[in-house]
Amino acid sequence: MTDPTGPAPALTLAQGDITREHADALVNAANSSLLGGGGVDGAIHRRGGPAVLAACRDLRASRYGRGLPTGQAVATTAGDLDARWVIHTVGPVYGAPGADPSLLASCYRESLRVADELGARTVAFPAISTGAYGWPLDEAARIAVATVRATPTRVEEVRFVLFDDRAHAAFAAQLD
Q1: Of the N and C termini of the chain, which has fewer Cβ atoms inside 10 Å?
Q2: What is this structure's pTM?
Q3: How many domains does the chain have?
Q4: Residue 107 lies in a domain
Q5: Residue 113, helix vs strand vs coil
Q6: Which residues pair with residue 125 across a beta bridge?
Q7: Average pLDDT over residues 15-40
Q8: Is 41 known to be catalytic?
Q9: CATH number of the domain to which 45 belongs
Q10: What is the pLDDT of residues 67-81, one digit of tens each?
Q11: Cβ-contact 53, 45 below 8 angstroms
């Protein structure tokens, strides 16, 4: 593992579909099965094609038989996406037993750790846990931005790719 002691990454915002982004690594707001689902997870699997699903199946068969734990991250190929890797992370479900902000922060921290191990210089994140998992957008944006700012990394650019105006505004407010 590298010693992530570089300068803080540039934090940028984009609005749109994360599967259309060009970056070394795209972060997938995955479910614990790693086998696809709705929202960002389904979109990454559809656009990434069969190579992403095959890599996730391999992970399930080897290291993650019970699924990827909440707050952890693991990388696969990016398949047909315009990236080298997909970093899958499982966000917490808001209001579920045991879900707390530290698990959401862990998704960002662990994804950056994996990015460092891969040598990724640019990483694109969605707004993890804010869709079907119900995390309040303003709180999720605060946790995401604060965690990325506080996490030592060799990543040079962290891009938050937000699907709509509301999400973009929430993250923009945290960058100001």
Answers
A1: C
A2: 0.95
A3: 1
A4: yes
A5: helix
A6: 160
A7: 96
A8: yes
A9: 3.40.220.10
A10: 999 999 999 999 999
A11: yes
